[in-house]
Structures are given as C-alpha cells and as structure tokens.
Amino acid sequence: MNAAEQAIGLEVATKIAAVVNLFKAQFPDARADLKPWANDPGTRDLVDPDSIDIGFHLPGWSRPFQSRSILVQIRFYEDPEAGGRRAIGIEAAGFTHLGEQWRLSTIENWQFVGATQPTDEIKEKLKLFCRQIFELFNGHV
Prior knowledge:
By secondary structure, the chain is an alpha+beta fold. It contains 4 helices and 6 strands, in the order H-H-E-H-E-E-E-E-E-H.
C-alpha cells in the first residue's frame, strides 16, 4: 500500500521518513515517491494492505542500478505476542521503461534475480538498506 496512505500515526509516519532518509543516505540522488501505485480499481486489487510501498526515482537510467526507478515493499505481519506489527520481509525491484529488470527479496536467501542486475557495490548497499529497515521496524536484524 502506498506509504502516504500508511502514514496514519506519528510513529509510522516517522518510520516512513526514516526509511526515505536511509535510502537517500546510500543513494543521495534518488527522489522518493510515497504514492508509487495508481489509484485505479485494477491497481487497488493488487496492492498488499500489509505493506508499506515506496518508490525511488533516479535522475535517469543508471548503469550501476541497471534501472531508473526502484520500488521497495516492506511487508508486515500482525504479531500480538511481539506487541504489534513486525516487518517480515522486504522486496525491492528495479524498473526501466521496459518493465522490471531485477528483484531482491529478503524472504529467502537475499539473492538478486532478473535479466539485468545492479553492480556488486549497489547490491551490497541495497542489502545494507534492507538490514537497516529491519532494525528500524523490529529493533534487530
């Protein structure tokens, strides 16, 4: 779900801002988009209500990223025993005008898949960014 729609309280809004700052700390030229999903019925049917989705747009096509835009989806699980909502996974995908070029998922083995992939340096920075998100939302990696 669009990050702008998930920012319903001070704590969540602050954490969304922190995620944006963490990404920009690694990639200062990126511009954040808190509403990456269109608000039409077809798109709304595909949106996960238990996620915070943020788009990041680069100034143009980036050779190191092998993309122009990155969509980050932070997935959550409501865990009453742990005291509320916990981040359980992060998906990041790089896009060009041709569509999705690569994907990183923290759900299994943190591997990049796709026809084209970022450089090793960008891969490591994206993995660090994901670890920082887990730290931010769960207090540990």
